[in-house]
DNA sequence: CATGAATGAGGTTTCATTCAT
DNA sequence: TATGAATGAAACCTCATTCAT
């Protein structure tokens, strides 16, 4: 019974998260809670039972997404022949995810609120740690410029969290791919121009971890 | 007399635009109209007299900003010794502008609405035209990879329209500068990896001009 | 359970309609929605949940009222010994209803908006059909002039949709009754003066039905 | 100079009244003061200089209209061969005037406010007096039923102050003419049914005169 | 004296959240 | 426990009126 119920509950939770993700990606941060509930096929009441308020929903979404990214990173690292290839693949996959849900990140206040959660911070730490491994390895074998750190890469990826606008005659996916490639090329050693400041590594941020 | 009155009105208009810009940059697209009015030191009524509704305000802001960017581009092209330097400077200046007002662009619906205005489209055309000149020149003298077009550059810049989040121990300005440089390096010929698709030039979009 | 809930909702809906009717009759079309809500003993939110906007409320009210009139017409036709008596009674009852809610009809734009609803049009058709039956019968047995049609009668009745102003020393009800009688007398054959144009029957309007 | 100015002022005043009348007739009581000013070709300031507030404008309009009706009544009485013909003509002319400006009369509060002006009351008295003369004469020569008084007629006419709704296939003017004729026929002796109450004459209301 | 800019109270509507069923 | 009805604070916008030019 409890098992049954839990399964139901889990399913509800997932449907809600999926609906929230879709709507946030497509309609912006303003989507009414009621619409999210409707898309998830549940009543508002149920939504609020699972997530006490809007910010809790966004937090859960955030954690969910970051965990997904961590999986992608781990798999890439394990599967690809070398670190740079792994990193490129990871970055491309992140962008392809259309992580619009994190677009909320665009609102400074929301962003702050989001990161006041230990769960979010911890998920993010896991992700940063593994990405840093990729970066380190790539830099060691000379396939990546050495004056950049995890934070630089994270910021670059986060720039892509928004959906690219439609350009007449260019597919959004293609545009995405082009921009991503340009970004990756900029991380290569061949064309490196000196950067202001120093790279920020995982160790430098882990105690605050609210960027 | 009417002139005098107009001066007042003009001043109000400018104050409103300035206030709107600030607040939009710092608080996101959701800022209440009343708060904008308060910051501008006028009543809501005045705000609505100048800009019939929220979208009209955003449009005006958009045009204003784009025109400013066009000035920057023109000046850079005139002042700098070569095209690539001009383009780099222009890109850095755009980013430094913290064009947060255009962050509205992050909401697909808002973006569409924004571009239903001839004034916006035309301002944008002017900007694209001059940026394309810079790009062409830089490509001709071999300082820029030749497989990118205005639209790629415009999209790259637009990625910066949002304020970078605070990373502990790193100044936002520094972070901005680093990311910008990485992006610019990616546009150089030295490290170019083939891009999917073809570059989109001004001529390809000018008839629609709503990207 | 759902049934029970619905019962509550139904009651609220009816209270809102009743309150709206009262206030519209007594204070004109301009009554604030909040006041309607307050009089109905519910929050504004509830009002808006039932009726998405002001016009929807007016439409519902309109349908409700027209249906009531249809009932009156049917009953009169069934109960009274002859058609003219039935028609007179129906007209008197309509007037007595103080159909002030329909006073909205006084505003051309509102009127147009009102009739863009199929429900309203269909309710009105039902009413017109039955009234036409009364008229036809009355005309056949010679108790009513034959140069008038439903539309004439409908328009005459609609003239009464506004509350008569207080005349010192005359009760509003009495005034109403006198005017109604004068109108009814004008529909008799005894004093008929030729009318310009031709009578409009139900068949002539039913396809448009938006008068 | 003063003469010149006064002429200007007079012209302004008349233009405002005309514009107000048009707009009220066509768009309902809700017309913004600014729109009235625009239609009159003056600024709001000027409008407010002439009429301290909205109600003052409506009052002036009311007086203006009633005086016009009085003129019509007098002329009809002087010109037509007999009293009933004069009365019929007067009634038809009033209806044709489309006295929509007085539609304000539809809002009870407005109506009350309107009649708190001596000027309005006095203009109305003049009108009632002359109409009563017509009625008396018509009743004396047997062309009008004797159980009705000025107030009945006034109320009947006032019912026509609203614009008739468009009925597909029937011209508004024709509809107006038909209804008016039906009303007039009801005032004839031929088909008279006993009325409840007693007729109210001018003398009965003149001391209060705020119906 | 005319103008139209500015004001702000007040009406309309939306939506996050609570709560009865 | 799921539902969706109810709530009301807060946003948006309008317009009567005042006031500086």
UniProtKB/TrEMBL annotation, chains A, B, C, D:
This protein's UniProt keywords: DNA-binding, Transcription, Transcription regulation
Residue ranges: DNA binding: 32-51
GO molecular function, one term: DNA-binding transcription factor activity
A Pfam family: TetR_N
Keyword Magnesium in annotation: no
Sequence ranges assigned to domain HTH tetR-type in this UniProt record: 10-69
Entry annotated with the keyword DNA-binding: yes
SUPFAM superfamilies: Homeodomain-like (SSF46689), Tetracyclin repressor-like, C-terminal domain (SSF48498)
PANTHER family reported for this sequence: HTH-TYPE TRANSCRIPTIONAL REGULATOR BETI, HTH-TYPE TRANSCRIPTIONAL REGULATOR RUTR
Protein name: AcrR family transcriptional regulator
């Amino acid at each position: 019974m409890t098992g049954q119920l839990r399964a139901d509950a889990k399913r509800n939770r997932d449907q809600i998260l999926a609906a929230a993700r879709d709507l946030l990606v497509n309609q912006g941060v303003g989507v009414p809670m009621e619409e999210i509930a409707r898309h998830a096929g549940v009543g508002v009441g149920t939504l609020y039972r699972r997530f006490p308020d809007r910010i809790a929903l966004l937090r859960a979404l955030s954690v969910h997404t970051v965990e997904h990214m961590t999986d992608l990173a781990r798999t890439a690292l394990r599967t690809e022949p070398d670190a740079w290839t792994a990193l490129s693949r990871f970055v491309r996959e992140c962008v392809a995810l259309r992580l619009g849900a994190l677009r909320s990140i665009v609102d400074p206040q929301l962003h702050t609120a989001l990161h006041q959660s230990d769960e979010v911070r911890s998920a993010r730490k896991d992700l940063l740690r593994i990405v840093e491994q990729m970066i380190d390895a790539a830099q060691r074998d000379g396939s990546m410029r050495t004056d950049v750190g995890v934070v630089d890469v994270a910021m670059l990826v986060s720039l892509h969290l928004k959906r690219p606008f439609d350009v007449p005659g260019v597919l959004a996916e293609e545009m995405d791919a082009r921009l991503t490639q340009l970004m990756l090329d900029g991380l290569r050693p061949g064309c490196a121009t000196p950067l202001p400041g120093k790279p920020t590594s995982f160790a430098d941020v882990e105690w605050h971890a609210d960027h």
